[in-house]
Amino acid sequence: MTFKPTKYALRCCATGNIFEDAGWSLADPHCDCPSLVRAEYEQKKFNPREDLDGFYRYADWLPIRRTLRGSCAPITYKSEALAEELGLANLYITFSGYWPEKGAKMETCSFKETEAYSVCARLPENTGKVLVVASAGNTARAFAKVCSDNNIPLLISIPEDNISALWFTKPLNDCVKIIVSPKGSDYFDAIALSDKVCTDSRFMAEGGAKNVARRDGMGTTLLSAVEAIGRIPDAYFQAIGSGTGTIAAWENNLRLIEDGRFGTHKMRLYPSQNDPFTIMYDSWKLHSRGLVDMTPDQAREAAAIIDAKVLSNRKPPYGLAGGLFDSMEDAGGDMFKVTNDELHTWKKRFLELEGIDIHNAAAVAVASLAQAVSCGAVVKDETIMLNITGGGEDRAKSEQEIVYARPHLVLDPALSAEDIISEINKLY
Fold first, then answer.
1. Which of 24, 251, 319, 398 has the most neighbouring CB atoms within 10 Å?
2. In the structure, what pLDDT confidence band is assigned to residue 1 with cuts at 50, 70 and 90?
3. Which CATH architecture describes the domain 75-109+214-396?
4. Distance from C-alpha of 83 to C-alpha of 102, rounded to nearest angstrom
């Protein structure tokens, strides 16, 4: 079957201006303030596609040109053991990872696959350019897997301290190249490196939160939940590094309201961060659209302390139009912060209760739900969605042969763009 590209337009969140996607539009060229753009789909009804496999069953609400091999959608099930532990009657867990008995078969064990399968399917074929992705770990693994399997040229930029996140079940295709910022650097240093690479026209920035394909891919977690529950949840829990997944859930909530068959309410948003890397938590508690000050040295120190390393973005899409601040202002809710001790307590309890290992970041979300129950932010009979953004990694590694990717280059982000590009050109 030939896939027909999804029909959509883009709307600027700051001005409301609607315009056509030029192919890889990340912003409205006529808007002079920081703003996300949002996809507005021709298909207004939530319509899972039975004719498409895996993740692409949600293609009607994905800004894509084609489908790619090897995808898997998030799965949602009603919790019994964890729900009983917390005293909740309607707790639904949306799980992205490796858990074959539940139908979850994401090879990289992370919901970042939803981003990669959407972003890469938005790309036109044979662009002649190299896609550039900066990551703290899980995003890099997901994009590397998808691009390797589908022969899409990719350059990954990741902190060297996080290189162990690049594990796979088979060696990567040569179309994937890896550069790292030096030991002691953080995610923002990897971003700075990728920004300099993208000054060369041969390379194209993936775009992060500004890419509608990334957000709408992540938003499929809510679509999975609504399919299983039959309605929009009352409350949504997720650990955040950038907040993009929570923004994405809110955006799909708005689309579901427009559909009208799953409720007309906005679910309260409860994102969480790993203490002491709490730049968005601290800003929200001040009810400030602007982020609190965090110097590069403070960020690197905090990132070194937290055990959920992927939750360490010091320049998140928080205050811009359509960002996390606007999402939470519109939907309601609150933020939580979780210590390393708390995350490990609930990581262990989740394994004992639900029967599968989860990532540290996902354990932050579980711990935040326990806090919310304790303080009365949620009550017994509410319908609650817990977004487990990664899990089954220990099991996957125990059942399969694992290979670790190695960096092709270590590059200091303080180097000039010319020097960085000169080194990278040696890889091609």
1. 251
2. low
3. 3-Layer(aba) Sandwich (3.40)
4. 17
